[in-house]
Amino acid sequence: MAVELRLEPSPPRAGETAIVLTLTDASGAPLEGAHVRVEGNMNHAGMVPEFAEASETVPGRYEGRLDFTMAGDWFLIVTVRTADGREIERVLDVPGVARAGKDG
Amino acid sequence: MPAVATQTRRDHGRARAGKAAPALDLMRAPFLGALLRHPRIRLALQLPMLALAAVLVLHGLFGPALAPKNLATVVTWVHYRGLLVLALLAVGNLFCMGCPLLLPRELIRKFVQPVRRLPRALRNKWLSIGLFVGVLFSYELFDLWSSPAWTAALILCYFASATLVDAFFERASFCKYLCPVGQFNFAASTLSPLEVKVRDHGVCGTCRTKDCIRGRRDPEQPARVTRRGCELDLYLPHKVGNLDCTFCLDCVHACPHDNVALATRVPGEELATDPLRSGIGRLSKRPDLSVLVVVFAFGALLNAFGMVSPVYAFQSWLAERMGTTSEAAVLGVLFTLGLVVEPLVLLGLAGSIALRLGRSERGLLQHTARFAFTLAPIGMGVWAAHYSFHFLTGLWTFVPVAQAAAADLGVAFLGKPDWGRGGLTDAWVQPIELGLLLLGLAGSVAVTVRMAREEFRSSPARGAAPWIALHVLMFVAAVWLLAQPMEMRGTFL
Questions:
Q1: Taking the CA of residue A99 as centre, how many other CA atoms within 13 Å lie in the half-sphere pointing to its CB?
Q2: Which value, to the nearest 10 degrees, does the dihedral of the CA atoms of residues B200, B202, B208, B212 take?
């Protein structure tokens, strides 16, 4: 399974952020009907993780919102439960989330 | 020489005179006193700490590679550091007391006793200051907070170093001269409310065996030590304050007269006086200790600076000006500015203005080295504010990580990981941080005022003013730093 991540705003800033995940299977076809859960975490210890559900808006495309509570390096753990019951996990780095209101 | 000897005796006498009967002696407290006097009390603290260290190393090396999911990073950088500074402030050097690094060497020393002393050239704090800076530098360069494996490697490195050094060199060479955490604890414990001290100096005056330093001997075989004395070379009747004291309680267990107290005292008072201290000498003759306190205080600001947004803009600017993409080079410049240039300029200015305003004839270097000790309280305030922020905001974060680690091992009784567990909110933590900083500032001012009365007999207030201005400047810098949006990043280039 391949996962493509897009964030809005991009580059990301601290605060509520739109997540768009495009999931494709090994053949490159959109992965439909999956249940997608996203856990956002900072790369240092001591922070409470943020959780979000992403729902399918078009086949293979899942959208949700996540709160980057602080500027810095984040990573997302994307857990996908496919329609046939398999569970797949991917870790995606989101480095350098800027502080809120910072340009660029 | 006779004059020197007389002076020395008089100073020790003054130190003794200042040691009135302790207000509260924990050794005499019901239950706790008996517990502290138990010969295995230190081992009872060390064994759980050793078990914890083993768990951290194993989880760090073989557990999840993600820092917030790993006990090595969560417990080391959030809980251990926070509890360490809070224990130092509330009680004393408890973490040296329960330090598990010494257990492997205790095992080795059951079979082989080292006979060499650490070379004389190394019997000071210079090397440990370098190691302390090295740890702070590595923390930033290798982003230790974000790497369970590197954190585990650091713990293993501490164990290996302590074991190797103390396998070759007798007494507590690693603790006294090398351990970076130990030096941090020694500097911080000058602000602790408890001190290991003599209960009644009259009893020591009649003592012939000096077991507290020489160790208690087997009456049948006098060469055989049955209870060791102080391995940090602190002869208790002449010990002043907490510097170099690991709270190991060896002196308590060695003293045949039950004459050692764990007593309350005025935190920071030991910084303001300059008697001859056993195992240390005079603070005014120990430039290495002055530098240790300076690095302790400015290192606190630098370490806090490393976690806020402006540092990344500054580092990027610096990298551009230097024409480099090497993080080590940029950090090297940052550390040189923060730990060498800035202290030299600020302490030099404070010292020279103080000497002029206070009309003192003392040399600038001598004066500045002595008044550098006034930075310890404000430095401790900054460390405590910074580490208590991480500790209190991440108070319960170890729970889901431990639950997940147990679940990975097939242990179900801890329950399903509850990742929503955090800690106190900023609204609670920020006033605590400010309170700790204010305590630090108040401590530095109090120590300065006390020292200025001795140093500037004609105009102590004028002499103290530049140093107090420096403390206020450091306080303002710390408040500004802790008010900045946090931005923990491993990359900036």
A1: 13
A2: 20
Q: How many residues does chain A have?
A: 104
Could you tell me how far CA B13 lies from the centroid of its own chain? 28
Cβ of A46 within 8 Å of Cβ of B491? The answer is: no
Residues B222, B294 within the same domain: no
| CB pairs < 8 Å spanning A and B | 82
CB of B410 within 8 Å of a chain A CB? The answer is no
Same domain, B34 and B77: yes
B422 interaction partners in chain A (CB closer than 8 Å): 47-48
Last residue of a domain, one of B281, B306, B326: B281
* Residue B161: domain span: 2-281
Contact B77 A73 (CB under 8 A): no
Q: How many domains does chain B have?
A: 2
Q: At what angle do helices B460-483 and B375-393 cross, to 10 degrees?
A: 20
Cα-based angle B75, B77, B79 (whole degrees, multiple of 5):
45
Tokens 């009365």 -> residue: B453
Averages of pLDDT over runs of 10 residues in chain B (493 residues) are 40 47 85 95 97 98 95 97 97 97 95 94 98 96 93 97 96 97 98 96 95 93 90 97 97 96 96 97 97 98 88 89 94 97 98 95 95 98 96 95 94 88 89 97 98 93 97 97 74 46
Give CA–CA dist B336/B302, Å, rounded.
11
Q: How far is B477 from chain A (nearest CA, A)?
A: 21
Across the interface, whether the CB atoms of A72 and B393 are under 8 A apart is answered no
Are both B16 and B130 inside the same structural domain? yes
Tell whether B290 and B432 lie within a shared domain: yes
pTM, entire model: 0.91
Among B281, B297, B326, residue at a domain's last position: B281
Cβ proximity of B216 and B256 under 8 Å: yes
Q: Are B63 and B113 in contact (CB under 8 A)?
A: no
Distance CA B397, CA B419 (A): 8
**Using only C-alpha atoms, what is the Rg of chain B?**
23
